[in-house]
Amino acid sequence: MSEIEPGKKWQIATVTSVRKESPRVKLFALNLAETTPHRAGQYYDIRLTAPDGYQTQRSYSVSSSVVHSDSIELAIELINDGEVSSYFHDVVSSGDQIEVRGPIGGHFTLSPNYSKPVLLIAGGSGIAPIMSMIRSKRDAANASPTALLFSFRTEADFLFRSELVDQVKTNVGFHLLPVVTRTAARENSSGILSFGRINRDSILSAIVSLTGNAGSPASGYPQSLPARAYVCGGSGFVEAMGNHLLDIGMGLHDIRTERFGP
Amino acid sequence: MINNKFFGRRRSEPTRPVPPGQYLEDGFPVLSAGPTPRVDLATWDLSISIGGSTVGTWNWESLNALPQTDIHTDIHCVTKWSKQDTDWRGVTIDTLLADAGVETPTGFVMAGCEGGYTTNVPVPDVLEGKGLLVHTYDNEPLAPEHGGPVRLLIPHLYLWKSAKWIRSLTFMDQDAPGFWERYGYHMYGDPWREQRYTND
Lengths: 262, 200
Ligand SMILES: Cc1cc2nc3c(=O)[nH]c(=O)nc-3n(C[C@H](O)[C@H](O)[C@H](O)COP(=O)(O)OP(=O)(O)OC[C@H]3O[C@@H](n4cnc5c(N)ncnc54)[C@H](O)[C@@H]3O)c2cc1C
Fold this sequence. Notes:
The complex is a heterodimer. Chain A is α/β, with parallel strands linked by helices.
């Protein structure tokens, strides 16, 4: 192939805003000179270069809707001792320049016009590419059945909370099931949260909300399964969710995954 | 461009250089497009076909009965991590071809996996000990999430070429893109030339 694929060249992006979304996650809006529309679920590579020439790269998913292509949002979680995430959290501010290339990736993507029931499962900052899917469907006025099972540590880690709750109110097809893994603060929390870990039962209730069909309780297999599931988060989380989805009878090809860390 | 306030946290000093854009990882992260497929050893087999006809099929027992090769090597994942000094055991592609009693093929080979994942490699890159089917990592059976029971290992290329849960090797005259290659990942994938994506 002789033609240069669009979006795969390094370019310098300008940070136009930095917002603290939770104690551990900041949202960065990046303005791109060379714009290639992304598909919901894709990511960008970031390259940092130290004054002595040392370089390092990491990948970050686009969390913004596909309708905005000249500006993208990244949701970056601070990892303890993390080389790149701590640079973003401690140093990067509005007006800074960052070298990026993208959008990259093609399997973990969802078309904004996808009309079959889809189950989205996110752990922590794994919500980033899934948020792009939800926002893109919203901007395409697509109210087809979508359920989000979202697992996070404490109530303060409920990323994009008001926007997601707003979706529930305005979009009849959208179902939100937030799950808090650290249950200590259970008492003074609000009604929509459940506590513990996402297990087979929480997945089955998400599917019921999607398809309105409980299946036969004895078999534990729902009668109608979502057409597709997207799972994103840390590797252990994705592994566990993938196993649950296979257990309830979903096909290997209908489950798409993105793994963020070890 | 230089990020003035970026100094890097070079965590472990590499014993050997790492390819451009890679960082050293002590753990063993997982990259796959889907969940870990369930592979039943009782029915697992691996077949090799050349020019459209099957020239050999091995099950778990017959694969293990072949001469085994140990390899100590570094691995490089396109998601930016590299891991040095990893130990694997398995059967070289040379051994499989010799066992099948066929002439060394030329051209390209497509690896096919449980779940339908594929990846393409030039034949010389899997010969002369450069490509193995491995079943043991660090003296333990290869874990399912890392591609067990058996994965391909071609350590000099980015790790997506080392297809997990391998079931077939299809030798062909012409190159063709596999699963990630169709999504814009590089046809060859040399980490030292940083061939991550098409046109790199
Ligand atoms: C395709 C893709 C998309 C991604 N999208 C996002 C995104 O949208 N938002 C985001 O925040 N991250 C995302 N990541 C993860 C990101 O690329 C980095 O791996 C992460 O920010 C850590 O980099 P670091 O340099 O800060 O830490 P490093 O210096 O690389 O690591 C420091 C230590 O933390 C461990 N570690 C690394 N990552 C994690 C983790 N996630 N959880 C726990 N421990 C970890 C490492 O093993 C190491 O011991 C994505 C990764 C991939 C492959």
